[in-house]
């Protein structure tokens, strides 16, 4: 039995290792076009590799996937975060959980993960072929005893296999292979990115962060998306977990409108308007001689507070006792419903996640086998599946890769 894995990323390697261990008689070959396998694993998480997330309930876990969540619930019941933690543990790699639920190797080095996978592949008998670009994938017709898939390499040589796993990430070749074998490929657009914003309120404040804000982005005339969480000001606009989640859930409409939208920010989501007004009025009454711009209220960063005081037209020498009712209303408005114009997509260091890809309707998620082409499997980002930042994209890669590898060896 000959098995081909096209793509040397997270899904491809785990699929190859699982297949080789599942059937010692199978000949498993992994084809990677570059000389550097597992590249995304190496650079993810700032070089630490965010392996997965400590969300162990599949029903909750799927809520972190803008696309593909419903299809992943069954696979997550078979091989989810608990199973990948156990898998790495058996390979001698321990993971740790950070406060936000993200999980990393205790070494804080992605090399720990890449070396683990490379060694596991070698020890399992996987034939890893680097710098071997697959030019085409063809389905052959013939007797059942003849391998049905033909892979042609860039050098012209041809190889034949009984089953094939396409785990090419967001590489164009993978989508071309899918289309050539009769599959529907949905438009691919970026899924994790920051917002380009030019506004005097954030000028010169790069690096200022907010622990918790409530966001709403208005796209077009009738699309509104909401998120709550940390936010960061950058030199090109706004970033942070809450912004990245918005970008993931709004990937398609934001792309449709060329990344132009209106962003509403509530900097004090724990306060309703009445309580906020009472808090500020209390400060006004208790500290009438203190300068408004030097206030330290509501956990709003001091540098940002000074900026909105300026934007509200309040002189830097104005004290609380002389603050007009109109200015007070303006401050409350800026804290609870600040409006920013998004005029483009910024750059995020992990912006290698896309939505779109091979239609999930054409895949059997019990096995990851194609419904259109028996013996052909898909795993990882080549599918129309994407998660928010936090280890969720790697988890879907581990899960679908493992599931494909487990079932490919059952074929014959």
Q: What does this protein structure show overall?
A:
This protein is α+β, with helices and mostly antiparallel strands. It is built from 13 helices and 21 strands. A six-stranded antiparallel barrel has the order 12-15-14-13-16-17. A five-stranded parallel β-sheet has the order 6-2-1-10-21, with helices on both faces. Helix 1 runs parallel beside helix 13 (392-408) and helix 2 (39-47) packs antiparallel against helix 6. The longest helix has 17 residues, at 392-408. It is elongated. The mean pLDDT is 94.
CATH architecture of the largest domain: 3-Layer(bba) Sandwich
Q: Name the poorly predicted regions.
A: none
Largest beta sheet: strand ordering? 12-15-14-13-16-17
Approximately what portion of the residues adopt beta-strand conformation?
25-35%
Average pLDDT taken over every residue:
94
**What is the CATH C-level name of the largest domain?**
Alpha Beta
Rounded to the nearest angstrom, the radius of gyration is: 26 Å
Remind me, CATH topology of the largest domain?
FAD/NAD(P)-binding domain
Shape: elongated
- In total, the number of domains comes to 2
First and last CA, distance: 8 Å
The biggest beta sheet, please?
6 strands, antiparallel, barrel
How many individual helices? 13
CATH homology group of the largest domain: FAD/NAD(P)-binding domain
